Automatic annotation (TrEMBL):
This is MBL fold metallo-hydrolase. Gene3D superfamilies: Ribonuclease Z/Hydroxyacylglutathione hydrolase-like, Winged helix-like DNA-binding domain superfamily/Winged helix DNA-binding domain. CDD domains: metallo-hydrolase-like_MBL-fold. Pfam families: Lactamase_B, WHD_BLACT. It comes from the Bacteria. InterPro entries: LACTB2_WH (IPR041516), Metallo-B-lactamas (IPR001279), RibonucZ/Hydroxyglut_hydro (IPR036866), Sec-metab_biosynth-thioest (IPR050662), WH-like_DNA-bd_sf (IPR036388). It comes from Qipengyuania spongiae. Residues 36-208 form the Metallo-beta-lactamase domain.
């Protein structure tokens, strides 16, 4: 996993990245958020949508409001409900009067330590968007693309006027997405990658990291990478029972210790998917290839 580029980062500054899109970076860098969560503002002055308002951080909220100026906010749209994406929707709705739309709410209590930012239990959308539904404004159309896998309620949003796709955490240019069971599902994640590979989007704008200018090429590589991980697991379990803790150091050479738990959870997600497909079985605390 690559390290973040050197500071300074454009935190709190509105960047015009194409005629209909502005980007504001939140001050929440971490090993899982890269330089921070990127909030996108879609619109050209007559009415906008805010995608992934980010954490409930006062400085970030002020930066979003400054970037919007006097433009009406027609919708606050969330790709999913991790705490680095959706909590800012509520204070932003209070200040703008805009409805919260997008992904479905998700109440999920995990046992034990987690390897992601955790879920937002207070997310309460005014409208849940289904796959293929659109939100429209002056000169723009955002269509929901259901992409479960990273989490079960994940959506991407397609900006029809410029063939751009806001990919949330599903596809990022700097890293593969962490899939954390039980809500994260590797089988669903792979199916969602196949859906994106079949599209003709010009560019991806992820919630973390740089824009992806060759999206189908990246997605094809991500699918291949995950299949390589599957094959690696099957080889390592061919004649020896191993647990995810055993597999991680064999699969991830030179891994940053801070990412060890995330790697274990990703391996577990692969094992659950392989078990469903009849390729591995659980034996006590370990797994073995069939």
């Amino acid at each position: 996993m690559p390290t973040a580029p050197p500071n300074p980062w454009p935190t709190g500054t509105a960047e015009q990245i194409e005629p209909l899109v502005r980007r504001v970076l939140a001050p929440n860098p971490s090993p899982f958020t890269y330089t921070g969560t990127q909030t996108y503002i879609v619109g050209a002055g007559e009415g906008c949508a805010v995608i992934d308002p980010g954490p409930a951080n006062a400085a970030h909220l002020d930066a979003i409001i400054a970037a919007i100026g006097e433009e009406p906010v027609l919708a606050i749209m969330c790709t999913h409900t991790h705490k680095d994406h959706s909590p800012g929707s509520r204070p932003l709705a209070e200040r703008t009067g805009a409805p919260i739309v997008g992904c479905a709410p998700l109440a999920f209590d995990a046992d034990g330590p987690r390897a992601d930012e955790g879920f937002d239990p207070d997310y309460a959308p005014d409208r849940v968007m289904e796959d293929g539904e659109a939100m429209t404004g002056p000169g723009w159309t955002l269509t929901a693309v259901a992409t479960p896998g990273h989490v079960s309620n994940h959506l991407c949003f397609a900006l029809e006027e410029s063939d751009a796709l806001f990919t949330g955490d599903h596809v990022m240019g700097w890293s593969t997405s962490v899939v954390v069971p039980p809500d994260g599902d590797m089988g669903d994640y792979m199916k969602s990658l196949d859906i994106l590979h079949g599209r003709e989007d010009r560019i991806y704008y992820p919630a973390h990291g740089p824009a992806v200018e060759k999206p189908r090429q990246l997605v094809r590589g991500m699918i291949g990478h995950r299949r390589q991980r599957e094959n690696q697991i099957l080889r390592l379990l061919a004649d020896t029972r191993r647990s995810p803790v055993d597999l991680v150091p064999l699969m991830y050479k030179g891994l940053d210790p801070k990412l060890g738990k995330a790697a274990q959870l990703s391996v577990t997600a692969h094992l659950i998917d392989l078990e469903r497909r009849g390729l591995v079985s659980r034996e006590g605390d370990g797994w073995l290839a069939r």
